[in-house]
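Subgroup meeting minutes
Present: P.N., E.W., G.H.
Scribe: E.W.

1. P.N. recapped why we're keeping a running log of single-chain structure predictions: easier to compare across weeks, and new members can see raw inputs and outputs side by side.
2. G.H. added today's entry (555 aa).
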Amino acid sequence: MSLTPPPNLPPVIERELFDVCIIGSGAAGGIAAKELAERGLRVVVLERGFWVSPTRFRTHVMPYQLPYRGFREGHGTSDYTGFLYAPHPSTSNPAGEEIDYALLPAVGGKTLLWDAFSWRFGEHDFQGRTAGDDWPITYQDLAPYYDRAERFMGVSGSREGLAAVPDGQFLKPLTLRCGEQIVREACVAKLGPAYRMFPVRKAINTEPHGGRAVCHYCGHCMRGCDVDAKYTSANSAIPAALATGRLTLVTGALVREITLRPDGDRAGDVIFLDVQTRQEHRIHARAVALACGSVEDARILLLSRSSRFPQGLANSSGWVGKNLVSEMGLGIFGYLESLVGGPVVNDDGTGTHGAIANLYYDKNSPDFARGYGLYVGAQRPQIPGLLRALEGMGKEFKKRVREVYPALVYVGAAGEILSHAENFVDLDPDQRDEFGLPLPRFHFRFHANELAMAKDALDKCASILEVAGGVRLAAYETPRPDFDGENLVGLARMGDDPRTSVVNHYNRAHDVKNLWVLDGASFTSYAEKNPTLTVVAVAMRAAHYLAEALRKSEV
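Output recorded in log:
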């Protein structure tokens, strides 16, 4: 959906009273703005960043055109996308893992660069978990919102009848490529039906949808989609909200505090800094909704101290910043001997296409709780640096690279990280951002459950490659999983008990009756699946209850 970005707004907005002030315009904030505005409410969205034109994405830039040939990694330093991320958005406790936290200040947030994986959580991801706390809502509570989200976003997929990854409202699925088909057939024949591979579900247009283009399968979704075939909050939800005439979008607005009204149980003004002028402004609204990501949600609440809430706004339980969870990833690269020496072809693709559902969804492993999903990708990497693992020198090495390149395959895993009391986020007492505000500080380390799961996952990845006639290019005897700094959830979790949670099962703060937390910060626990579709569905559901509370004057 094409859109001419509106100009930033003058301080005149300080004289208005909005129905809802939403902080953040990403996956949750964008969809909530749409749902609320379409219900007739006057909404203001405060976004720290600005509009990013798709022409700024480096989707198809060749490695040799970049200063470091595309080899730099990390959110703030990547040659391809680093200019979009905040360069130093957090700190880490040196006693734990170093966390590469992703903060993308822009209209649309991290949806601009996400890989579009769109999974529903299964019933046992909410209730009957066997490890980690159950949610106060069920799959059935969220199912209608999953339907609504998929129809709006445009999610490609196939109906598989698997409890771990419930079916939804799909566009036509992605096609498994040659290498993935080889792996699929080998897995079913030699490892059994539990290893049945099916197309990954992604919010990518495999057919016309939502006024956006059809994917041209360049395979670089995480560099930004310059044709808008991939769903983002910026190309769909925010434009839909603006089209109602009831959304005011303020860009360059860094929220530093939410005040408390004199009555002590309602949020007052939202105070923000204009990032360009450094001037302070205030927003007046009947309700306030946080939707700027788990870490920033927690930081704003912790910064909003008062005599009523000395530990931070809505934090009588002490749970703001606690319950830090995400997913871990690991995998192996290899090549399929049956494809060695074949022609190099420009295979259609969107990155990884094959998925195998959590093998432990219905029954835990004896070695660890919960589980992981498996992924198989036969795409052709633009920078085949992993081929340095091949032996040889000079012409012989180049010859071997050409032979192996068409046969490359990746087998990886994404596993659930359980909540631990030692894993949390607080405010760094010493380090501050460019605006003088304390940086969020991570306290995280992997525990025995994650390490046992990682070992099992790597063994399964190796088995899949082996049965498919693959050769492993790199082996790690003591693998260290990667912590996903993109998909952080928790930190303001939902629950029925105000003593052990921050918001209730409608995402409304227990302590502050006109405050909502709309996004993944409200998650009680995680799953082995990308959380974005669930973030959108939860935000939709919360927005509907927020609108109803305003209609009934219960705020």
